[in-house]
Amino acid sequence: MNSLPFISVIIPNRNGANTIARCLEATFASRYPSFEVIVVDDASADGSVEAIQRFPCRLIRLARRHGAAGARNAGAAHARGDLLFFTDADCLPREDTLATACRALSRRKPATVAGGTYTPLPHDDTFFSRFQSVFIHHFETKRADAPDYVATHALAIRAGTFHRHGGFAEGFLPILEDVEFSHRLRRTGCRLVIDPTIQVRHVFNFNLFRSLHNACVKAMYWTLYSLRNRDLLVDSGTASHELKANVASYFISLPCVGAYLLTGAAGWLGVAAAAFAGNLLVSRGLLKGFRVAGGRRFAAVAGIYYFFVYPLAVGAGAFGGAALFLAGACRPRGTR
């Protein structure tokens, strides 16, 4: 008799016609013997539903848009599994992902939530997609035993724990509902862990514009959320101390270089050089991750992009988030 826990895989979908079929193909290729797949379509207006209906999954269609949090909660309400595994419509679980998630929970206390991360190499292995996948993998696994949050691209939780704590906060921000849920779980005594072997391959399809737009939007909502919760300086996954130091170094160095060009005083270059040297030291782990994932040439180009281009988008988003905070925008429920 099979004694393995039954797993409900829950996938929210909103206009995911370009990726949902690949996501479901990968999910149903799992070697884990006991699972169901629930896809919650969040009022899509593309061909998503037709693609989903080709697979033996349970499809829940929402008549109006609820957002990712509402879609995940709807899936959990219909789930039959002892364990819930959340992922996204643009993520491709590996054949061992569900088995690894089950082991991660089974060997820990009941009030444990286990998260995974992206594979270092994404499905679409272009420069900007690889940069993003390495970036997220590095920072999500850096503090595996005590992460600040567990992300919903690979989140495993016992069904009872999920329901006892009310699921994801709806009417919240467009993103970061997993961060808010993680914080709420931890306040009530749950333990968060990251198991780096629980991995999904992400479909980014990033180019320069999409990479910078993603950085700007996420930084805006991270800043707004963090200011509301008075934890702006916390080392929080991708909102890491390293990224914050990178942005600070950029915005310290830029006016110093400008002052040098205006005045010719070499001291300004000294300040910029010191800030950059400190940034290099702080970022050495990420630079190693770039090198391991793509070799020295990729690491060099990724480093140039990370140090000299990426912080401009993150900084712009952070300023936007601070402006929203000062304007009194978005007072989320259930936060710290």
Characterization of the model:
- By secondary structure, the chain is an alpha/beta fold.
- The chain folds into two domains: 7-205, Spore Coat Polysaccharide Biosynthesis Protein SpsA, Chain A, CATH 3.90.550; 207-336, no CATH class.
- The chain has helices at 20-28, 48-52, 67-77, 97-106, 127-141, 159-164, 177-187, 208-228, 241-263, 266-282, 284-308, 310-326, and strands at 7-13, 35-42, 58-62, 83-86, 91-93, 112-118, 155-158, 191-202.
- The radius of gyration is 21 Å and the shape is globular.
- The termini are far apart.
Compose a concise summary of this entry.
This protein has 336 residues and is α/β, with parallel strands linked by helices.
Overall pLDDT confidence:
95
CATH topology name of the largest domain, in short, is Spore Coat Polysaccharide Biosynthesis Protein SpsA, Chain A
Name of the top-level CATH class of the largest domain:
Alpha Beta
- What does the radius of gyration come to? 21 Å
Q: In which range does the helix fraction lie?
A: 40-55%
Q: Main beta sheet: strand number and arrangement? A: 8 strands, mixed
**What is the strand arrangement across the widest sheet?**
3-2-1-4-7-6-8-5
Secondary-structure arrangement, i.e. CATH architecture of the largest domain = Alpha-Beta Complex
The helix tally amounts to 12
Which features does this protein show?
336 residues; alpha/beta; Spore Coat Polysaccharide Biosynthesis Protein SpsA, Chain A; 2 domains; eight-stranded mixed beta sheet; 12 helices; 15% strand
